[in-house]
Amino acid sequence: MGAQKKSGARVSEDPDELVRVPLQAVLLADSFTTKFRPITLERPKVLLPLVNVPMINYTLTWLESAGVEEVFVFCCSHSKQVISYLEKSEWLSQPNFTVTTVESQNSVSAGDALRVIYERNVIHGDFVLISGDTVSNMSLTQALLEHKERKKKDSNAVMTMVIKRSKPNPAIHQSRLGTDELFMAIDPNTKQLLYYEDRADQSKGTLHLDKSLLADNPSLSLHHDKQDCYIDICSPEVLSLFTDNFDYQHLRRHFVKGLLLDDIMGYKIFVHEIHSDYAARIDNFRSYDTVSKDIIHRWTYPLVPDVMNFGDTATKLERQGIYRASEISQSQSAVIGPFTVIGSGTKIGHNTKILNSVIGEGCKIGSNVIIEGCYIWDNISIEDGCKLQHAIVCDGVIIKSGAVLEPGVILSFKVVVGPEFVVPPYSNVSLLQQPIEEDSDEELEYADSTSVIGSQVDKSDVEIASKVLETHFSPASELGMGGAGHVWSTCEGSHEEEWRHSVAPIPKDKVMEAIKTMKDDLENDDSFLPPSGELKPNSNYSDDDDHEDSRDDSYYFEKEVEATFLRAVHENIQESHLILEINSLKLSYNKLAADCAGAVFSAMMKYALDTPHSSADVLLQNVQAVFTKWKKALTSYLTDIDEQIEVILKFEEICEESAKEFAPLFTRILHYLYNEDVVEEDAILSWEAELKDADEADKVFVKQAQKLIQWLKEAPEEDDDDEE
Amino acid sequence: MPDVHTLVNDFLNQLKKRKIEGSQATAKLTAELLRSVISQQRVPHTNQATTLINAVRAVGEQLIAANPIELAVGNIVRRVLHIIREEDLSLATAAMDGLGVSAASDDEDDAERDENPVLSAAAVAAAARSTLRPPSLQTLLEDTSDSAAAPPTSSSGGESDGRSRSVEKGSRGRKLKHDVIEAVNELIQDISTCYEQIAEQAVEHIHHNEVILTLGSSKTVLEFLYAAKEKQRSFKVFVAEGAPRYQGHLLAKELAARGLQTTVITDSAVFAMISRVNMVIVGAHAVMANGGVIAPVGLNMAALAAQRHAVPFVVLAGSHKLCPLYPHNPEVLLNELRSPSELLDFGEFSDCMDSASGAGSLHVVNPTFDYVPPKLVSLFITDTGGHNPSYMYRLIADYYSADDLVVKRRPTTGS
Question: Quick one: where's region Disordered (chain B) (predicted)?
C-alpha cells in the first residue's frame, strides 16, 4: 500500500485533474530477448523491416491513431540507431503527438526499463505499455474507458491486458505466432485475470490451479485459445510496483504472475478482449512470418503497404494481393505470385518465380531464381539460378549463382553465399562470430550480454564488418567459394525449438509426430483440453479437478460415474442400486462395459486416495477397505478379459498421472486385485504381452509387476508357454 | 504560412489513415483547407492566378496522393483550380476596359502595359475562356452574350486616367484572391446544401404507391426519400443491407424512425425482390466522366437486376462527386480493400489462416467499391437536376477546366 500512496502523492489526489492528463505511452524499443539473433547483433529489432517498413513505425502509427499524445520510446541496445532513425523520420515533428526518447545503456529487462521511466518522473496518469514490435489496429477507446471505470470503483485495478482469441495448433501446442499455448483463468463477469501460465507443461496435459481460486470465485473460465497481445493499459502504480519489487524483470513472468500469486497488496489485473480488431506482437521469426502475412492479407488495415506509405514511393495493390512499388523493372517472363510485396527499384530477371514473399528496395534478382515464402530486405543481390525457400535475408547480402537456401535460413547483414552452395535448413549465418557467452537458459535471455554486445557493435559495427569481410573472403569459407560469414551453431536444447520458431512452415512430419503423440495421449488419458468453457465449482468436483469443463463426453462420463459412486458411498446406497445407476449412465453416454469398469475403478481408487492416509500401507488398507465393500459394483462389469485389461490400464494411468502415491503400491494392489478375483491371471498376462512392444517409459509398471507375472506364469500348469 | 502547413499536414494524416469517411465530408474539408491555403498565399503583382494555381496544385497533389481512392479530394482540387482560372478570366475581361483605355489614350507613363495590345489581350482571354468552357448548351448562350458584350465595352470606355488605373491594378491582386475565396465559399455552400437541392427534386421522381429499392446507406438517399414523404407521397422502401458493413441497417432504422414503410432484405435477395420494385435509387461514391459510377460494393449486381427487369436505376450524386476522369484509368479502378475482419472474425478462423503449418490457406477479400457501367444507369440526379449518363461529360466540362485534369506537376518542379 505504501507504493500506492507514494504514487498517489506523486500524481495528484484530485481525480478531475487526472482526467485532463494527456494519454501517454511507454514504448519499449528493445525486446530484451535474443530470439532475433544474429540479426539483432547489428540492428535493433524495432528497426527491422516488416513488409518493408521498420516495425516501430507500425507501433507508433497505431499509438498515434489510437489517440495517444505522448510517447516515451525506451531505447537500450543499439539506442543510437533507434534515436537517429527517429530523428530522421517525421515522428519527432508530428502535431499533437510527441515522441521522446529515453536512453539507458544498462537496463537488461523490461523491469529495469520501467524503473528508469519511473525515476524520470514523466508518467502522470494512465499509460499504454507496449513493445516496439507490436502491430495493431485496435481502438483503445473502449479498453481505456473500461480501465478508467474499474479504476474509479477499485483503485487496485492497476492494469488491463489486451487479449485476442486465437486458436492454438492442437498438435504442437503453440499459437500461430509461435508462442507457447497460453492458459488463462478469467472471471467471466468482472473480466479479472486470475491465472496466467504461458509455459505449462505440455507433456502431461494438466495444469494446476490453486484451490482458493475455485473457492473464492463464483465462476471462472479457463481459456487456452487466447493470445496475449502485449498491449497493456497501466495505472501509474505499475511503475512504482516495479520499483518496489526490484527483482521484477519480465513483464509477464514476474510482474503479472507476481501480482496474481501474491495477493498481499491486492492489486488486480483485468483483461480486455478484442474481436474484430487486430493485435499481435512479433516475438520470434515465426510471428514475423505470420504477422507479415496478416499485413499482406490486410487484417491490419489501415496499416497495409498501399495505405501506410512512409517513404516517397507509393505502393500499389494489384489483383491477388500483389503490392508493387514504383520503378520496378521486371522481365516479361518473370512470374510474381499472389500475396507478394515488391519494393521500389528492384530488378527481376527472366523466368524468375516469386511466391508469397516480400522483396525490399533496390534488390537485384537474376534469372531463373525461385523465391518462395522469403523475406528479402533491401539492396540484396541474388544471382542466376538461386533457390530460396522460407528464408530471411538481411540488407546487403549477396547470394552467388546456383546457391540454395533451405527453409528456415537466416542470413544476417552483408553475408555472402558462395556459388552452388547449399545453406542447410535452420542455419543462422552472420558476419559476426557467435558470442561465446550465449545464454542457453531462457530465463536469462535478458542478461547483460545483449546490451554489452549491442553497444560494442554500435561503436565498431562497420569496423568489424569490414574486418570480417577481409578475413573471410578466403577461397573456401564456411559458405562455399568466396563466401563470407559464420554459420552459428544452434545452442544446446534449442534444436527442438528450431522448427517451432523459424520462418519456415512447420514440417509435416513434426506435425504428424505431434498428432500421433497426442492421439496416444488421448487413448489412455482424457485430459486433452477442449476449447475454453466455463467451470463452476460445485460439490461434486474434487480437488484434483484441474481439468477444464469439457464437452468431451467420456470425460463427463467418468466424472458422472465418480460422483455417483461417491454419493453411493456417502449415502450408503445399496450396491445393486449403484450398479443400476451406472448402467443408466452407461446407456445415456453410449459406453461399453469396459469404459464403465475403468470409470468405476478409477472412482474407487480416487475415493481410497481421498480417505486420509499417512503412509503407503494405510493407503493400501484404504484400497482394500473400499474394494471389500464395493467390489461387486466393479466385478459386475468385469465379465470379459478385455474389461479386466482395461482396469489394469486404467490403474497404470492413475499411477502415472493423477495419483502418484499409488505408483509404489502398483504390484501390491495388482496382487490384491488378483487375489480378490477382480482381475484374472489371463488379463495380467495379456496386459504384459500388449505392452511388450511399447516404449521403455511405458513399461515401468510392467517391470514393477514382473515378479508377480513371473509367479503367475510359474505357479499354474505350464499351458501358457507361448506367452514369452 | 506555417499555420497552413500544419493544417495541410493534419489533413494529409487524416486522409492517409482513412479517418475521414464519406465523400461529402472529405469534399467539404478539402474545400475549406484550400480556402485557407489561398487566403494565406501571398500574391505578387504579376501572374497572380498562376501563383495561386501553383499553390493549390502543390497542396492538391499531396492530398490526392494521400488517398487516391477518395476521388472527391481530386474533384474539389480541380474545382478550385477552375474557379481560380474563371475568376482570373472574368477579372481580365473586366480590366480590359482599363487596358483598352490605356492603349487608346496613348499614355507614356505605363510603358509596360503597352506591350499588351488590347486586341491580343482580348483574343487571349476569349481563347482561354473557350478552352475553359467548351460550348455546352447553356454556356454557349452565356458566352455569346458575354463575348458580344465585351468588345463594345472595351472600345466604348474612355474617361479613366492613369492614377485610377494604377490603384485599380494594385487592388486587382486582392480582388482576385477575394473573388476566389468568395467562389470557394460558394462551393462549400453548394457542397453542404447539395442534399437539399437533390431532395427538392424527389417529388418529380417518386410517385404514389411505388416501391423503391436502395442498397447500403447514403445520406443523399435518405434525404431524398424523406423529402418525397414530406410531400405526402406514400411509398414503400426496400433496403438491401449492404454487406459486409451493413450500413443498410442504419438507413432502414432511420427511415423507419421517420415514418417510412421500410423492409430490410439481404443483398442476395435483390434479384428476387426486383420484380416488385418500381425504381432503384442509390447513392454513389463517385461519378466518372463517362457516366460510370463507383459505388458501394453490391450495387453492380443491383443495377444488373434492375436492367433485367427494366426497372429504372437512378443514381443520386452531389456535384462534388463528379469526377473528370475516365474509369479506364487504373488509378481509379483500383479499389479500396478493407480489412477482412469485417467479414470474418479473426480469432474464429485463425486456425485456417495458420500459414505456418501449411494446413490452411484462407484468403478473404473485402473490396469497398463496385463499378457500375453507364449503360446500366438510367438517370443521374445531381444538385443541378436530372441528367442522362451520356450527358455527364458535358456537365463535367462545366465544372472543370481541361488543363487541370492532371493535377500532378512535372517532377522537375519539385516541392
Answer: 142-175
**Cβ contact (<8 Å) for B363 and A290?**
no
A456, A564: one domain: no
Q: Of the residues A288, A310, A334, which one is the last residue of a structural domain?
A: A288
Q: Does residue B258 surpass a pLDDT of 90? A: yes
Provide the CB-side half-sphere exposure for B83 (13 A, CA). 26
Do A275 and B347 count as a contact with CB atoms less than 8 A apart?
yes
pLDDT grade for A382, boundaries at 50, 70 and 90: very high
CA separation (Å) from A131 to A159, A245, A270? 16, 21, 19
Mean pLDDT for the stretch of residues A380-402: 92
- Do residue B132 and residue B224 come from a single domain? no
Closest B-chain CA to A293: B355
Kindly determine whether residue A164 and residue B347, on different chains, have CB atoms separated by under 8 Å. Answer: yes
| Three-state DSSP state, B125 | helix
Interface contact A511, partner B, CB < 8 A: yes
Does A319 touch chain B if contact means CB atoms closer than 8 Å? no
Grid cell 517525421 in the structure block, residue: A90
At A295-348, the pLDDT tens digits run 888 888 888 888 776 655 677 787 778 888 888 898 999 999 888 999 888 999
Q: What is the pLDDT of residue B110?
A: 43
User: Residue A591 is part of which domain span?
Assistant: 550-723
A-B CB pairs within 8 A amount to 94
- Does the CB of A167 have a partner CB in chain B at under 8 Å? yes
Using DSSP, state whether A23 is helix, strand or coil. Answer: coil
Put simply, whether B337 touches A (Cβ < 8 Å) is yes
* Long-range contacts (CB closer than 8 Å, 24 or more residues apart) made by B256-263: B258/B226, B258/B229, B259/B229, B260/B225, B260/B226, B260/B229, B260/B235, B261/B234, B261/B235, B261/B236, B261/B237, B262/B236, B262/B237, B262/B238, B263/B236, B263/B237, B263/B238, B263/B239
- Is B213 found in the same domain as B307? yes
Shortest CA gap A301–chain B (Å) = 5
At residue B62, what is the residue type?
Answer: Q
Map grid coordinates 472471471 to a residue: A187
Final residue before a domain boundary, out of B153, B169, B193: B193
Taking the Cβ of residue A124 and every Cβ of chain B, the question of whether any pair is shorter than 8 Å is answered with no
**Interface membership of B353 toward A (CB under 8 Å):** yes
Picking from A30, A35, A48, the residue whose alpha carbon sits closest to that of residue A501 is A35
Q: Is residue A383 part of a domain?
A: yes
The whole-model pTM stands at: 0.72
